[in-house]
Amino acid sequence: MDVLANSLAGLGSFLLYFSMSLAFLMLFKFVYVRITPHDEWKLVKEDKNIAAAIALAGSIIGYSIAISGAASNSVNLIDFAVWGIVALLAQLIAFVIVRFGFMPKIVERIEAGEVPAGILMAATSVSVGLLNAACMTY
Q1: Mean pLDDT value across the chain
Q2: What is the per-residue pLDDT for 3?
Q3: What is the rounded CA–CA span in Å between residue 108 and residue 64?
Q4: CA-CA distance, 19 to 14, in Å (whole number)?
Q5: Cβ(83)–Cβ(136) below 8 Å
Q6: Can you tell me the distance from the alpha carbon of 97 to that of 88, in angstroms, rounded to the nearest whole number?
Q7: How far apart are CA 36 and CA 33, in angstroms?
Q8: What is the 3-state secondary structure (H, E, C) of 118-136?
Q9: What percentage of residues in the chain have a pLDDT greater than 90?
Q10: Three-class secondary structure assignment of 79-110
Q11: What is the spatial distance between Cα 116 and Cα 96, in angstroms, rounded to a whole number?
Q12: pLDDT (tens digit per residue) in 13-48
């Protein structure tokens, strides 16, 4: 019985961090789809646009990787919240850099269903998420 009690000792912290992670993920999705000039949900749900689905999935995965790094390395919930916001900003900045720096027509290409554009955006988002997570160590 002690083994089970010891195993479950961190359940409260797990629930707090997991709940906060889900809240951050929902916040990220809410903010991300509003800063992009195209309507990802419409493109995915109604138009069945594969490029948009790939780009959106990559952004969600990238942020999830970053937020997992924040959760793993934070010393308390406030620290986690601060780094969760930093990760969110880094992901948004990555989109802006790709859109205005490397591929100015990426939005139009995703809207047109060009899968390579969606893959490039997804790869960028996942890469930034990995870098984010790696840099959140103490």
Answers
A1: 94
A2: 84
A3: 26
A4: 8
A5: yes
A6: 14
A7: 5
A8: HHHHHHHHHHHHHHHHHHC
A9: 86
A10: HHHHHHHHHHHHHHHHHHHHHHHHCCCHHHHH
A11: 18
A12: 999 999 999 999 999 999 999 999 988 889 999 999
pLDDT at 7: 80
pLDDT at 17: 96
Token readout for 82 is: 């601060």
Phi and psi at residue 8, to the nearest 5°: -90, 5
Return the residue matching tokens 């995965």: 61
10 Å CB burial of residue 84 (0-12, 13-18, 19+) is buried
Query: Two tokens at 80?
Result: 């986690």
Amino acid of residue 32: Y
User: What distance in Å separates the CA atoms of residue 37 and residue 89, rounded to the nearest whole number?
Assistant: 17
For 8, which DSSP code?
T
Q: Measured on CA atoms in the order 99, 102, 108, 109, is the torsion positive or negative?
A: negative
> 91, 28 in Cβ contact below 8 A?
yes
What does the pLDDT read at residue 120?
96
Q: Name, in order, each residue with C-beta under 8 angstroms of 85's C-beta and a sequence gap of 6 or more.
A: none
Res 90 pLDDT > 90: yes
